[in-house]
């Protein structure tokens, strides 16, 4: 493996960062922490969670928070204010003189930093986490206008991405999508990665995990993510209603979102109010327990460029039942670690869940295979790739160092669920 012979100075720029709760924010935070943990000087430029600018140290990462305002119709998120942003970025680049600038989107802060870094002759990387589907519900785009709005959004994204020295996205399917949308330059698939040590099989702790979360000790279908339109969580609720006459099971939902109340009303209408458990926002330290509490992970979303939650579930040894949409088929091998279902076909989803929940032995085999497949997405591999990429773009000297321990076939993958 090649890595930089000397510490690099990296400026990571993102329009969403914790305390925001979404996949892009989660990935960017882990990327920054991981790079700092490998000895690099890491700065993050992101919107202020309070609105006022400030600089703070979060562990070994320096956070530069710029002025922000609440996003209309999305009260939990804030956007960087464009006024004075260019000058702020120019001054920061001059002061830090980073070896590379890595932006995480094509929105206001990221596009400004990308343009100013190019003007200053600093190498740039852009990682795309964007799907127009993720914006439709938040921006209240009428269904009749979504096709036009999506085309315009993709055009804007591609125009910004063309300016970067290197473009990455989490999966080969996401890379192909960018090319289909008109990106002319090369794009590399680099997994978001997961922490295999943090998310690992612990079937013997399942009952204790349920008690910790305050849910009944019965077979559990688990979903982790935003309760928003493109996640199609209503399909999971409807499928639950179809299988409960045969199986004593429940649906555990970890996350919040715009459709939470609507989903609760649907559960009541279907007589499932006691079997759909809303955990709300789950603190990061409790997140592994959510997966441990489950018997199967289900996801019906149609706009997943990778799905970190699905990878975390696989790493924990859970079988996966997923919509046959976007990048999810890259994670689910039919009959090996789970099953796919045609998006929107709730009866097929229910059949797939019923098949998994009806056989403890099959759950064990599917879960063990999922753990082995998840090992290919070890976050250390992703960090190594980004580190090598930064060093190459920045002209740093690369040194050969021993690779980390192999994770394929690790001891957790051999644990069959009890």
TrEMBL record:
Any Pfam family the entry gives: Glycos_transf_1
Domain of life: Bacteria
InterPro entries: Glyco_trans_1, Glyco_trans_4-like_N, Glycosyltransferase_grp1
UniProt keywords, alphabetically: Glycosyltransferase, Transferase
Family matches, as Gene3D superfamilies: Glycogen Phosphorylase B (3.40.50.2000)
Boundaries of every Glycosyltransferase subfamily 4-like N-terminal domain copy: 21-198
Glycosyl transferase family domain span: 211-372
One record GO biological process: carbohydrate derivative biosynthetic process
Keyword Disulfide bond: no
GO MF entry, a single one: glycosyltransferase activity
PANTHER family documented for this protein: SULFOQUINOVOSYL TRANSFERASE SQD2 (PTHR45947:SF3)
Protein name listed in UniProt: Glycosyltransferase family 4 protein
Upper lineage: Bacteria, Bacillati, Actinomycetota, Actinomycetes, Streptosporangiales
């Amino acid at each position: 493996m090649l890595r930089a012979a000397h510490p690099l100075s990296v400026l990571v720029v993102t329009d969403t960062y914790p305390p925001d709760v979404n996949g892009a924010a989660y990935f960017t935070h882990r990327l920054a922490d991981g790079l700092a943990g490998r000895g690099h000087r890491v700065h993050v430029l992101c919107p202020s969670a309070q609105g006022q600018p400030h600089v703070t140290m979060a562990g070994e990462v320096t956070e530069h928070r710029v002025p922000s305002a609440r996003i209309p119709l999305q009260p939990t998120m804030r956007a960087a204010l464009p006024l004075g942003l260019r000058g702020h970025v120019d001054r920061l680049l001059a002061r830090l003189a980073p070896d590379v600038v890595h932006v995480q989107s094509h929105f206001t802060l990221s596009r400004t930093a990308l343009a100013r870094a190019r003007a200053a002759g600093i190498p740039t990387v852009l990682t795309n986490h964007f799907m127009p589907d993720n914006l439709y519900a938040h921006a209240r785009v009428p269904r009749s206008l979504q096709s036009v709005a999506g085309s315009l959004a993709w055009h804007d994204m591609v125009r910004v991405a063309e300016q970067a020295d290197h473009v990455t996205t989490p999966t080969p399917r996401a890379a192909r999508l960018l090319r289909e949308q008109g990106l002319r330059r090369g794009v590399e698939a680099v997994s978001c990665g997961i922490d295999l040590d943090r998310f690992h099989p612990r079937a013997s702790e399942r009952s204790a995990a349920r008690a910790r979360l305050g849910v009944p000790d019965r077979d559990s279908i688990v979903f982790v993510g935003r309760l928003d339109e493109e996640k199609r969580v209503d399909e999971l609720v409807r499928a639950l209603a179809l299988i409960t006459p045969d199986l004593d099971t429940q649906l555990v939902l970890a996350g919040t979102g715009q459709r939470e109340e609507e989903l609760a009303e649907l559960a009541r209408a279907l007589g499932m109010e006691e079997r759909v458990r809303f955990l709300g926002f789950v603190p990061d330290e409790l997140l592994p327990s959510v997966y441990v509490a489950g018997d199967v992970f289900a996801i019906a979303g149609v706009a997943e460029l990778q799905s970190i939650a699905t990878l975390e579930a696989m790493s924990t040894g859970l079988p996966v039942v997923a919509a046959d949409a976007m990048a999810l088929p890259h994670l689910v091998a039919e009959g090996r670690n789970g099953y796919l279902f045609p998006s929107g076909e709730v009866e097929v989803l229910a059949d797939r869940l019923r098949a998994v929940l009806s056989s403890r032995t099959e759950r064990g085999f599917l879960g063990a295979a999922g753990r082995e497949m998840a090992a290919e997405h070890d976050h250390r591999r992703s960090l190594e790739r980004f580190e090598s990429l930064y060093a190459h773009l920045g002209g740093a000297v690369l040194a050969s160092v021993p690779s980390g321990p192999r994770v394929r076939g690790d001891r957790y993958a051999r644990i069959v669920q009890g």
